[in-house]
Design brief:
This protein has two domains: 94 residues, Serine Threonine Protein Phosphatase 5, Tetratricopeptide repeat (Alpha Horseshoe), CATH 1.25.40; 66 residues, no CATH class. The protein is 68% helix and 0% strand. It has nine helices and no strands. The termini are far apart. 35% of the residues are buried.
Length: 160
Amino acid sequence: MLEEKRDWQGLAAAARETLHVLPPGCFRGLAAENLIHAGEELDLADLVITGKRERFLSDPGDTALLALIEEARRQNQRDSELEKMLEFLSALKEKEPDLLVKTLFLAGRIESAFQAAKNSRAIGWSYGSRGGGVLFAGILAVLCLESIEEATTIKRVLKR
């Protein structure tokens, strides 16, 4: 209703209030989406990044993490947001080891990422409980960045 009336201030207020009362999950994620939308319509960067952070905290995953980090980069807050996400992932009762490895990698903590992924398979980011495949392929991609078009095997592995 608030969105239909284009009441972006009202939508932002309702989304913030909802985020404070709902537990993590998809409904809280929807409230975060509304905060993002209101922030974009109002051109308020702080609402957008808060919404993207809350979306990740509501339902941690690759897509939400990358959207948050990209927004943080645009707002020159990348390092601080990565630190917040690392604290959050480290404190989770039900650990997300693959996501932790990816976040460590994004933060430039290669040694820590290798430690977290040391028992993982060399390839196969969708298997097991470690993110070694992503780490390995990501490092290869970075090393081959200037000639990525010729690195057909790495490109094929990254598309999986």
